TrEMBL record:
Bet v I/Major latex protein domain sequence ranges: 1-153
Family in the record: Belongs to the BetVI family.
Keywords from the UniProt entry: Pathogenesis-related protein, Plant defense
Species this chain originates from: Stylosanthes scabra
InterPro entries according to UniProt: Bet_v_I/MLP (IPR000916), Bet_v_I_allergen (IPR024949), Plant_def-hormone_signal (IPR050279), START-like_dom_sf (IPR023393)
Protein name: Bet v I/Major latex protein domain-containing protein
UniProt cross-references to Pfam families, sorted A to Z: Bet_v_1
Length: 155
């Protein structure tokens, strides 16, 4: 299995506690409202904490697909959330899983500093293409920015 990682850092005007609540606890309700292709997010196993598996169903270009996300860790005290995409019809066959670690910290202006680490685990010797990396990055940043925008317009 190959392992490939990248990190992204960003800032947000939203305070970390509020941003963490929205991205971790409220995102199942918010995301389908702000990302039109996402039809639903449902828990298929677990209670929302570590070990929980969520099914995210999307319709793009008239085609329905889904991915399965597994919650790996939630640390309320340090505003850290970890989850992995582990399968589904909308998941690249060359990948074993894609893991995300998001950490929020207070910024001097009252907002948040955001650090996201994405780790791709490929099957066997499968290469990780730039196209797959960019697709995952674009979608994850899009969801994050969408939730941030929702918070700012719906305080």
């Amino acid at each position: 299995m190959g392992v490939h990682s990248f990190e992204e850092e960003a800032v947000s005007p939203v305070p970390p506690a509020k941003l963490f609540k929205a991205t971790v606890h409220d995102s199942d309700e918010i995301t389908p409202k702000i990302i039109p292709v996402i039809q639903s997010i449902e828990i298929v196993e677990g209670n929302g904490g570590p070990g929980t598996i969520k099914k995210i169903t999307a319709v793009e270009d008239g085609k329905s697909s889904y991915v399965l996300n597994k919650v790996d860790a939630i640390d309320e005290a340090s505003y850290t959330y970890e989850y992995s995409i582990i399968g589904g019809t909308g998941f690249q066959e060359s990948l074993e899983k894609v893991s995300f670690k998001t950490k929020l910290e207070a910024a001097a202006d009252g907002g948040s500093k955001v650090k996201i680490t994405v780790t791709f685990h490929t099957k066997g010797d499968a290469p990780l293409t730039e196209e797959i990396q960019q697709d995952v990055k674009q979608k994850s940043v899009g969801i994050f920015k969408g939730i941030e925008g929702y918070i700012l317009t719906n305080p």
